[in-house]
Amino acid sequence: MSGLWHGKILMLMVVLTVSRHSLAFQARNANPSNQPGTNASTGNGTENTITTLPIVTWKWHHTEGPYLVALWVLVSWICKLEIETHQTRQHSSSLQLSNFVFQLNPALTNVFPESGLLICIGWVLGGIIYGADKVQTFRLQPFTFFYYLLPPIVLDAGYSMPNKQFMGNLGAILVHAVIGTVWNAASLGLGLWGCWLGGAMGHLNTGLLQLLLFGSLIAAVDPVAVIAVFEEVHVNEVLYIIVFGESLLNDGVTVVLFNVFDAFVSLGGPAINAVEIIKGIISFFVVAFGGSLVGIAFGILISLLTRLTKKTPTIEPGFIFVFGYLSYLTAEFLSLSAILSCTFCGVFCQKYVNTNMSEKSVNTVRTTMKVFANGSETVIFVFLGISAIDPSIWVWNTGFILLTLLFIFVFRFMGVFVLTWILNQYRLVPLGLIEQLVMGYGGLRGAVAYGLVFLLDENKYKEKNLMISTTLLVVYFTVMLQGITMKPLVNWLKVKRATTDEAMLAEKIMNRTFDHMLVAIEDISGQIGHNYLWDKWHNFEEKWLFRILMNPTARKSRDYIFNIFHQLNLKDAMSYVQEGERRGSLAFVRNDSKADVDFNKQFDTDFTDMPDIMGPDHIPVPFVLRDSVPSVSLNMHEQDQKMRESEDFNAHHLLQQHLYKGRKQRHTYSRKQPVVNRDEDEVQEIFQRTMRSRLESFKSAKMGVAQPKKITKHSKKDQTEKMSNGKPADDSKIHSYGDEDFEFSEGDSAGDAAGGSFPMAAYKGGAGIVNPAYMAEMDSNEPMPPMPQIPPWLAEAGEDSSNVAPSQRAQLRLPWTPTNLRRLAPLRLSTHSNDSFLLADSPATQEGTEPQPPLPLQDGRGRGTHM
Amino acid sequence: MGSRASTLLREEEIEEIKKETGFSHSQITRLYSRFTSLDKGENGTLSREDFQRIPELAINPLGDRIINAFFPEGEDQVNFRGFMRTLAHFRPIEDNEKNKDPTASEPLNSRTNKLLFAFRLYDLDRDDKISRDELLQVLRMMVGLNMFVSQVLRMMVGLNMFVSQVLRMMVGVNISDEQLGSIADRTIQEADQNGDNSISFNEFIKVLEKVDVEQKMSIRFLH
């Protein structure tokens, strides 16, 4: 560890020495900007005077600009590396595995947030530079900041935004971002003005408008700082998304405010009348919405373009970055809000782009985006530190600085409390006092304020330096002090943390149960759910956006089953490789014995427990499984603890993938992976299962004990029919199949005891078990007639079946449509049941050639409903 | 319809329901009109069929279980009081209810009662334990359509399919019964403290200790 340390320190020193040289050059150049063009001319000048051909020449001036940039990035990253390796948690990239987790040195970084540490390192570096040059050569230039450093961060934030969560809380976010920011700006400006008039800060050459301008530039919560601090704290999702979303959007707001007030100052106090103010307000909205629209337009462009890039996977990822950057620049030159534009571009395009691009490109984009964003973030913080070591900018005015700090703190809390109180009147889950405290406390100011304050024109703003130093102090105060105390505060207040991937299976299952329950209760009580609009949007998306913005193959592979199949295989392969590496080789994969010992055993027990069902087929089973399954299904029970983990992971993963989602999915979101919507498939499945189970309980209620026999017959009959269409069937085997059919009892609806340790008790009808024979039959049939919302059993049971009382939601939108079914049918056929294989080829011919004779009522009920 | 409903509902009845469930007056009248619109038999009670007519419930994997939860044991009808009592479980907990005097009986929407409601969804035989089978049943309802290995085998035998081909697909794509079984086992293991291989209500509460039940089992009833 210490060796590592020394190595890095050494490296740092070397880099610094190099940049020292460069500093000297740059100082002599008297051209502090990093523009390579201007330096190149001096280089050319020296080159012209040569008398003989030089073998090597010293062309420092040619390379100085880019070289310095590269060196600074390198320095910042080394600092970051230094911090990160001590970090207990590696969160910068989702792709990195837990290697870093174990190199911990919690003493320092557990207390300090990373951003604070970077600022400290910036101070040290700034001190060294200043000590060497006696003048601060480097500082964060607003141009560099706004055009090079900020866009990657904003784009990344938008692109990896948890959409669902963001949209779900959009109201709260907007209220806080717009009204909250305006309130912060106005209150601070007015407060300072009042104190200035009262003489609390001595003699200052300023005025109301200038103070309002100062208020507006420092009003915005900074996304960079907030992400840096909140990601380490792991507060719950809702809190996180509100603070984060607010910080992202209010940057746009604050830039707009800044521009408006800047214009006001230029106009001068007397020239401002009601018209100008109204214009200001209009411009505010135009800039904000215009920026968002530009972003969305670019999002659409990206999506459309990535439809076509199938053949050129190497430039695919590039498009995302170029378009993201272009959206920023376009909005900028239209004088619209660039930050909002870039954010919305990312938010909008992520879903379509991710499905359009190949997996490789998606990963590339994700990683690269993180690299850029992290890089900018690091550079920004380091430079925030470096910039401070410059006596020329420091002007101290106790009254002004302390009052600013106080006002920022107090007004932020007031704003949060009042706005949240209003919002809570409309929220299902009100934000508690504790959450409000954290929201208020999370009002970290950062680099945007700093960048803006440097943009001020010294001629107009006599107190520019005071504003700069105040801004810097505010940034340090919030990032360092509040950042450091955030974690203890969150602990102390017992803020609800992010449920880190529902640690227990039981929790996961129950959470899903809750979702279903809520939806059902909402339906029963007949009201439009909370996420009604979200549902609507989904429909629209499903219908139009996917069609337009996604390429056809991607649309298909987006499908639930393919997706799961793919994901499962990937994960399995990964865990195989991991396991193999842990053991030193992959040989075990080939060596069957270890991998599926337990697998076989489990199946054996399963099958021995049901001899009556399995009959003579018992023996070949393990064989078959051993041959074909291990490559796909990972179920190795290893005593090895690590294997245990991976099994755990598997179980969680399986559940994650397979549990039906509640219509709202309110509580599931992943920051890293967009949630895939698979509602329609599920809806069909669940519907059929429910119908089947109801049918069973209905039948058994009517016909009593003889029920199982009937069903047996029914399924057997189907089976034979299928046979005749498809392959000729072995008669004897069909019979053996028919006889051993399971028993349906009304375990579910009648509240019967489940009872019994018999494994196949599962086949009680009520539990929604699927008989493959039914399944195939239903799926292979033509889509339902256009009035499927009349539950089929009603057609027989109820007299007034047409008089269904659907809830509001149903009246507005029926949960399924025949077209969906038609589109889905072939897919399900090919994956779910094997008789569908036979049918999948020629479903049309089957329908056509075999007019089904009207069946006796009992047998035909299941079928008739779906024809 | 709303006016008709409110005329049918007597004032004192509303008061009683209000006291029992904590719903507001307007919520009660609104839900009463919903109740009457569901009540096709127009006899003041709902039967299972009445619930089953709600189309969305058919696409809810737990729909039937939830319908059952409305019916007291052994009964086929539920009146408006019972209907409201069940819905009351899902009322959000309000601040002023938290510090109500402790002598009063626990409100229907307390954390414990919410959990009990969820517990009953699983506990079919009402022995105050969730057995492995009961859990498995619910799991089966909630996971994607699956093909159990034994069924696959049987079908293969019937159809002369290529065994390995089918199996690779089935088991690979879908969660298998055996996997579900092991999931159920693990879940019980996690929760089971006294080693009886089932989850008692206390164990149930314990497992869900960290889950924000108050929030996850609440909906906003319209006024």
Automatic annotation (TrEMBL), chain A:
| Cellular compartments annotated | Apical cell membrane; Early endosome membrane; Recycling endosome membrane
Q: Which UniProt keywords apply?
A: Antiport, Cell membrane, Endosome, Ion transport, Membrane, Phosphoprotein, Signal, Sodium, Sodium transport, Transmembrane, Transmembrane helix, Transport
Signal peptide residues on this chain, from the entry's feature table: 1-24
Task: Quote the Pfam families the UniProt record gives.
Answer: Na_H_Exchanger
Membrane-spanning ranges: 115-132, 144-161, 173-196, 208-230, 284-305, 325-350, 401-424, 436-456, 468-490
Polar residues bias: where? 800-810
- Kindly indicate whether the keyword 4Fe-4S belongs to this entry: no
Q: Which GO terms describe its biological process?
A: regulation of intracellular pH; sodium ion import across plasma membrane
Q: How does it sit in the membrane?
A: Multi-pass membrane protein
Q: What does this protein do?
A: Plasma membrane Na(+)/H(+) antiporter. Exchanges intracellular H(+) ions for extracellular Na(+) in 1:1 stoichiometry, playing a key role in salt and fluid absorption and pH homeostasis. Major apical Na(+)/H(+) exchanger in kidney and intestine playing an important role in renal and intestine Na(+) absorption and blood pressure regulation.
Protein name per its UniProtKB record: Sodium/hydrogen exchanger
From TrEMBL, chain B:
Q: Does the keyword Hydrolase apply?
A: no
Record localization = Cell membrane; Cytoplasm; Nucleus
Q: Which domain of life is it from?
A: Eukaryota
Pfam families assigned: EF-hand_7
Q: Which residues form the EF-hand domain?
A: 26-61, 110-145, 179-214
- Write out the GO cellular component annotations: cytoplasm; nucleus; plasma membrane
Q: Known SMART domains for this protein?
A: EFh
Keywords, in A-Z order: Calcium, Cell membrane, Cytoplasm, Lipoprotein, Membrane, Metal-binding, Myristate, Nucleus, Phosphoprotein, Protein transport, Repeat, Transport
Major location, coarse class? Answer: membrane
GO MF:
calcium ion binding
Q: Which GO terms describe its biological process?
A: protein transport
Q: Which family does it belong to?
A: Belongs to the calcineurin regulatory subunit family. CHP subfamily.
List, alphabetically, the PANTHER family matched. EG:114D9.1 PROTEIN-RELATED (PTHR46002)
Name the record gives this protein: EF-hand domain-containing protein
Organism of origin: Esox lucius (Northern pike)
- Gene that encodes it: CHP1
